[in-house]
Every structure is written in C-alpha cells, then in structure tokens.
Amino acid sequence: MLSIAWAPLYAHPLPTGHRFPMLKYELLPEQLLREGTITEANLFAPQPPAAIEILRTHTPDYYRRLRLGQLTRQEERATGFPWSEQLIAREVTILGGTIECARRALRHGVAANVAGGTHHAFADRGEGFCLLNDQAAAANYLLAHEPSVQKVLIVDLDVHQGNGTAAIFQHEPRVFTFSMHGARNYPHRKEQSDLDLPLADQTNDATYLKLLADTLPRLLDEVRPDFVFYLAGVDVLATDKLGHLALTRQGCRQRDQLVLELCHRHQLPVVVCMGGGYSERLADIVEAHANTFRLLQEVYF
Q: Which of 105, 111, 131, 268 has the smallest number of Cβ neighbours within 10 A?
C-alpha cells in the first residue's frame, strides 16, 4: 500500500500574504481522496524526528537559532518566510515525514510526502522558502541506520537547482546529487551537484524528456544506488510564473512516469517529495501534482 505523509500543519503555517502557495498542500490530498486514487488508509501523520536526525545534516548553531527565532534579519529575508513557532513546527514535521517515508519505502518500495523537497536549505542556513533540507536529512538517516543502504541517488527535477543539497553532500561520496534545472533560474549562484543539467528557457517536452531518458538510465547503471529520492517539482510547467520552461502537463506526467518506472524496474526503493509549483491557476498546480500520485499507484500497486 502506498504510504503518504500529510498533516494539516502543511497547509496552515503562514500569514495571509503567503497563503495562496500553501493551499496546494490542503487541496491535493482532498482531490486524491475525492477521485478515489487514495483512501484515508494511505495517509499517515508525520511526527517530528529526534533532534539528532536533524543535526546529522544541519549545524547545531543554525538549528538552535532557527528554533529560538534568533536568525538575523538578513538570514530571515533569505528564507522568504517570517519566523514563527508554527513555521518551525511545520518544517520539522515535514522533515520527519520524509524520514518516515524512507523507512516505509524500504518495506514497500515507495512512499511519498505531500510536502518536502526543501532543497535550497544548506547545513548552516535557509534560502528560497526552505529552512531544513528534508531529503538530505532522510538520506543521512538511512546511511546512519540502514546497513542495506550504502549509496543514495537524489534525482532533483524541480526547475530550480538543488543548491543546498549539492553543498551538503559535496564531500559525501555515498550520496550522488543529480539536478536538472533552468540554467537562468534561481539560484543565481549555483552550487556544484555531482551532475548538473542546466536547461535553456522555453525547453519543451520533447527536448526535456529526451535528455532525461538519455541520462537517468545511465546514472542508475553507473551510480548503482540502493535508494532514490525524487524531487518532483511541477514548476517545470509552461504555466508556471517562476519556471521559464515550457513543459505541458502531459510532459510533466511523462517525466514522472519515466523516473518511477525506471526505479521500479531496478527494484529501487524511492521517496517522492512534491517540490515547487507556482502556476497562476491553482488547479494547474494541483492537477500536475495529482498526476504524480496517480502514477505511483499505477506503477507500484
């Protein structure tokens, strides 16, 4: 059975000015339940992890100041969020959800977090609406606790480079970071992933899918991972306000299908996190994310 991490806290942490981008975390599970793609049994309520699991990835000084609301104004501005206790509770819970997803994926082959994919968070700072790096923390959790996991592959297909993730694992050979992103998009100063594939503005379905199809099978053969984290951002859509690529909703679905079928064929456990999506119409965002979950059920169950 597909396990999906979700909590009401995902959708309600922020002041009114930030409300619209967060609505997808509320509407997505409602849509999946209404159409019958999932049932309540698929959903589990994530819990905050032990502090040590966060500190495997983030520095003690940063995590302490984050919890206590002691970030400087400049640091807070870089995150894009006004600090609040509810915001920190949300970020810690999301991170715990991705860790629990990793544990469940080892048992069932796949699991998904309705939120997560906070790939702009560095070990010692937050950036770009990311405060704690959930996939990095979950990868470190597996490496620390699961002897069967000796090599992790992070497949980051959000339109923005996973700069925080790349920096965190820069000197960690057990984690291979792959980011396929808009070349001229945020962040303006890119970090170096193990493999970066920068894309020109207005890259379309055919170009995008061919590049991914030429790259990912080779990576699986060369890296030989024991576990995969997939960041399935839908900000690659042509309708996205921030993405600058030109994928259709069908192209985005084919992207997810390519990744998931490859992982399934190679019998690789995978955790999927939603990442970004900033189309003008909320329905475009929710429908694109819903396609990912529909494919999870179709491919794995």
A: 268
Say whether the peptide bond before residue 13 is cis (omega within 30 degrees of 0): no
300, 137 in Cβ contact below 8 A?
A: no
Secondary structure letter of residue 277 according to DSSP: -
Q: 180-191 pLDDT, tens per residue?
A: 999 999 999 999
- Residues with a known catalytic role: 120
C-beta separation of 251 from 205 below 8 A: yes
Assigned CATH topology for domain 3-300:
Arginase; Chain A (3.40.800)
pLDDT digits (tens, 9 = 90+) for 112-126: 999 999 999 999 999
Kindly tell me the sign of the dihedral angle through the C-alpha atoms of 63, 65, 69, 75: negative
d(CA 11, CA 25): 5
Domain boundaries along the sequence of the chain: 3-300
Alpha helices (H) along 5-110: 19-22, 24-35, 51-55, 60-68, 73-79, 85-108
